[in-house]
Specification:
Layout lengths: L5 E5 L3 H13 L3 E5 L2 H10 L4 E5 L7 H11 L4 E6 L4 H9 L5 E4 L4 H13 L1
Parallel strand pairs: 1-2, 1-3, 3-4, 4-5
């Protein structure tokens, strides 16, 4: 049996974190959550993950800013963004620059999100 995909979810909305955590845990992911970019960086410094999935619009540090730091410090970590707020040009530029591997829109489709995250982890 293979190891579960270890994912760090980052969002300042507790309900979003809770919903995503339940969804992904039920689908066999090993899920850790963080309520901010700063908290995510602390967790990334102390544990290994396969994917970081972050919201875009958060106080203090946007998801794009978080993923820029992740790109520099953990370049092999798969980086994804889930958002309803992001400027499409910002997301497109981040993908083009290799900061984001995949972007998802809120609200998300559960089955499509799970399959896409599995595909990202396998790449």
């Amino acid at each position: 049996m293979s190891e579960p995909i270890r994912i760090l979810l980052v969002d300042d909305e507790a309900l979003v974190l809770s919903s995503l955590r339940r969804l992904l845990a039920r689908r066999g992911f090993d899920v850790v959550t963080a309520p901010s970019g700063a908290a995510a960086l602390e967790k990334l410094a102390s544990a290994e993950f396969d994917i970081v999935l972050t919201d875009y619009k958060m106080p203090g540090m946007t998801g794009a800013e978080l993923l820029e730091q992740v790109t520099l410090r953990w370049p092999n970590l798969h980086r994804c963004m889930l958002t309803a707020q992001a400027d499409p040009d910002v997301v497109a530029k981040a993908i083009a620059n290799g900061v984001i591997h995949r972007a998802f829109r809120k609200p998300w489709d559960n089955a499509a999100l799970v399959e896409a995250l599995k595909t990202v982890a396998a790449s």
